[in-house]
């Protein structure tokens, strides 16, 4: 059954009014999810590094970092800046690419005309990741001196801080960044399988090579290229989850038994509740559950752990919680940039709800609490609506969406005047005069989802408060799939 029918069935079962006629879907909805989807994908154009194409829609951004890789005699132009800075951190960039690909794999049929833009966003990442893995047994882990960059407030078009390339290899391994890149390449190969078979084949071949390197030469990039990634994106969670994650995606893409055996032989490394750029545990269990849910010989421990994850989230479940909730209803986990958890967990819940629907399954959380796919959808919609404006402040946390949204986003390119308006070079420290000013950002970073409110539902619309006001690619990426799922609710 195609994803659009499954999604409509779950929406209807959740008591959400859906009317489908002549191939179109309509329903009354408080929020325009279709518009939010469009904007959430557009955001990635604001994060692009490299030479921008004529089709660039966020026109206040211009080409930047056109000599990346020069220091190591490679072409490393392209890719994404991870957040409001001008560094290319390949670990979260690869996770972003994996999640964009998974969003399309699960919900691409619901995206309509936005599917093409989603494919472009993925390809902007994969083109760069192919460059970063072009030399055998060598993977680029980051580009740009992060300390120098974070001591400047400068447009990416102007930056003159060192563009150092940080590379892992056999002598200085980086299994987490390499395995996450392998996952991204494997997942994206499935996305392009029908539209560009040659490109998909290249992605898959490279994924297999990079995974082999990640597994054969084990070690953390914390030890190998610390100067380029720590403390900003140190790996706090170890690299085994990335290796299992990479093998899981390679099995999904190839059906080669060796990858499935790898996953099964290493399952003891898996946790239950964590998922994000640094921890893949819950994502692995849910991804794998798709092909073992009806297989009693292989469902354990993946499906039981996925069930535990569901029970650790839903408020009515008696199981120990892996999240807390604000009074306004937003889920929280410790640390800053909390909306990364709300968007990633919402995505996993919706995907598992689809798999449950296909398997005619419910989750038993104990004390007579039985979670249906419809309940998962209704819960997730609450998180989505909170992010889009149904919260105590009436604030949309997506820039450019709705009437009230953050205007002082912690983002260099958004704060500083565009090259079109101010063609003169803006020096490293001169930019702070704009940062310290009281005027709203000069350029609207449309679609960016910021770090989000505090646990008491308050929000400082201040670029000084980076944990609340800074957007990241890995907040947006899973939300693309979530918004695609709910898109049929807009007429």
TrEMBL record:
SUPFAM superfamilies: Six-hairpin glycosidases. Belongs to the glycosyl hydrolase 9 (cellulase E) family. It is an enzyme of class 3 (hydrolase). One of its GO terms (molecular function) is cellulase activity. Keywords: Carbohydrate metabolism, Cellulose degradation, Glycosidase, Hydrolase, Polysaccharide degradation, Signal. Residues 1-26 form the signal peptide. The active site is at 410. The keyword Hydrolase applies. Its EC number is 3.2.1.4. InterPro entries: 6-hairpin_glycosidase_sf (IPR008928), 6hp_glycosidase-like_sf (IPR012341), Glyco_hydro_9 (IPR001701), Glyco_hydro_9_His_AS (IPR018221). This is Endoglucanase. It holds the Pfam family Glyco_hydro_9. The gene is LOC110764689.
């Amino acid at each position: 059954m195609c994803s659009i029918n499954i999604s409509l069935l779950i929406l209807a079962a959740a008591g959400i009014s859906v009317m489908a006629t002549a191939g179109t879907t309509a329903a009354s909805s408080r929020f325009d999810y279709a518009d939010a989807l469009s904007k959430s994908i557009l955001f990635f154009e604001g994060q692009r590094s490299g030479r921008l194409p004529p089709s660039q829609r966020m026109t206040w951004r211009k080409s930047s970092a056109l000599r990346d890789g020069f220091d190591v005699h490679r072409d490393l132009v392209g890719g994404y800046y991870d957040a409001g800075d001008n560094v290319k951190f390949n670990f979260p960039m690869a996770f972003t690419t994996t999640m964009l690909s998974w969003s399309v794999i699960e919900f691409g049929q619901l995206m309509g005309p936005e599917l093409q833009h989603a494919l472009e966003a993925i390809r902007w990442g994969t083109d760069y990741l192919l460059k970063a893995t072009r030399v055998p047994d060598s993977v680029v882990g980051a580009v740009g001196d992060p300390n120098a960059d974070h001591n400047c407030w400068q447009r990416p078009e102007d930056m003159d801080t060192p563009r150092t390339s940080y590379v892992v290899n056999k002598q200085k391994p980086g299994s987490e960044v390499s395995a996450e890149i392998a996952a991204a390449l494997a997942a994206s190969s499935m996305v392009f399988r029908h539209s560009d078979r040659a490109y998909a084949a290249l992605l898959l071949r490279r994924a297999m090579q990079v995974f082999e390197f990640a597994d054969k030469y084990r070690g953390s990039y914390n030890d190998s290229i610390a100067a380029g990634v720590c403390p900003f994106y140190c790996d706090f969670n170890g690299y085994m989850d990335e290796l299992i994650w990479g093998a899981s995606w390679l099995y999904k893409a190839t059906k080669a038994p060796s990858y499935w055996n790898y996953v099964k032989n290493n399952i003891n490394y898996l946790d239950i509740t964590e998922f994000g750029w640094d921890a893949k545990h819950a994502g692995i269990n849910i991804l794998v559950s798709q092909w073992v849910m009806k297989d009693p010989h292989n469902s354990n421990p993946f499906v039981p752990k996925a069930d535990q994850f569901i029970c650790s989230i839903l408020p009515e479940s008696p199981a120990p919680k892996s999240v807390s909730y604000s009074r306004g209803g937003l889920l929280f986990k410790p640390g800053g940039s909390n909306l990364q958890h709300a968007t990633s967990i919402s995505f996993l819940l919706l995907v598992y709800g689809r798999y449950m629907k296909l398997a005619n399954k419910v989750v038993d959380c104990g004390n007579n609490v039985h979670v249906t796919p419809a309940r998962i959808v209704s819960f997730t919609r609450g998180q989505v609506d909170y992010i889009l404006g149904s919260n105590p402040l009436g604030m949309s946390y997506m820039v450019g969406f709705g009437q009230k949204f953050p205007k002082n986003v912690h983002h260099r390119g958004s704060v500083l005047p565009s090259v079109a308006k101010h063609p003169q070079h803006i020096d490293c420290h001169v930019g702070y005069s704009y940062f310290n000013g009281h005027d709203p950002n000069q350029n609207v970073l449309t679609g960016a989802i910021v770090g989000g409110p505090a646990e008491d539902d308050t929000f400082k619309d201040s670029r000084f408060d980076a944990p609340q006001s800074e957007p990241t690619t890995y907040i947006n990426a899973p939300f693309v799939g979530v918004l695609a799922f709910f898109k049929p609710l807009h007429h």
